[in-house]
Description:
Blueprint: E1 5-8, H1 15-22, H2 40-47, H3 53-57, E2 60-64, H4 68-78, H5 80-92, H6 98-106, H7 119-130, H8 135-139, H9 146-149, H10 164-173, E3 179-182, E4 198-201, H11 217-229, E5 233-238, H12 243-246, E6 251-254, E7 273-276
Helix pairs in contact: 1-2, 4-5, 4-7, 5-7, 5-10, 6-7
Amino acid sequence: MGCPLFIELCAGTAALSLRYHAGRNARPPVSRMGAKTGYADVILRVLGLRPGQGHTDGTRYLWCEPDAGVRLLLHAYTDRELATAAADIIRGWRDEDPRALWERLRAEGPATCPEGLTAREVARWFYVFSRTVPQAQVRGATDSDFMGSREETPDGSAGRAISRASLAEKVSSGPTIPATIHPDARAIDPPTLPPGTVAYMDPPYLNTTGYAHDLGRDEVVRIARRWADAGALVCISEAEPIPELIADGWHQVEVTGERKGQRRTFSKQQAELLTMSRPPAWTPSIQAGLFQ
């Protein structure tokens, strides 16, 4: 099907939009706990979409993300000049000691956006975030707080750190995506939407360690119903079906076995289910046990 507007109501790194717009090899330039990179292909297939289709069809995007640091990343997706300038700044730090640079940039405080929407602030966020182990996410801090609450590994190069040259290349070589960015999905009252609109939601999973901008289950259900009433196909990722919506006639699809790439290591929640306002375009096959 065609999709004139693709919405991520808890965008994070917008991994699903990247895959939909730029194809199967598209992925965020930095990793973030909970990102849907490994499930992007199967979720798109369940929605009746395919990787790269967004660029072909001229799809536009709406991303809602409360964390200021992650919004800097999203703005880099939409503005090639901003991303290129940030990459040049990262390259300009090549002769500095990695640990000393990390400490200096982190000491400047939490990320700011939009007040701090400059190439230098984008570069600062990318560098510190890419060289920091995910302690803050485990503790429930926000990504914009990472400068003060995350920890680098003792040798000064975090387990997921990449070189400055590689980071700069990732930042500058990504696709340019036509998106509008909003800090709070709760504040949007959607108008009547064009046919084919998809609204995807990846909220903090129930009963798991979350983030400072958590949405409670009641809020998730309210937002989902609001966008469905406006005409969108709404799809929510969770570790379990959402009973309030299933009772309304919504549909559930388990995609746990369809993950591509590295398995989850930090999360206790290994199951991955989709709750959808309309029937899925495709469902994964379920292999029965030997003695069933």
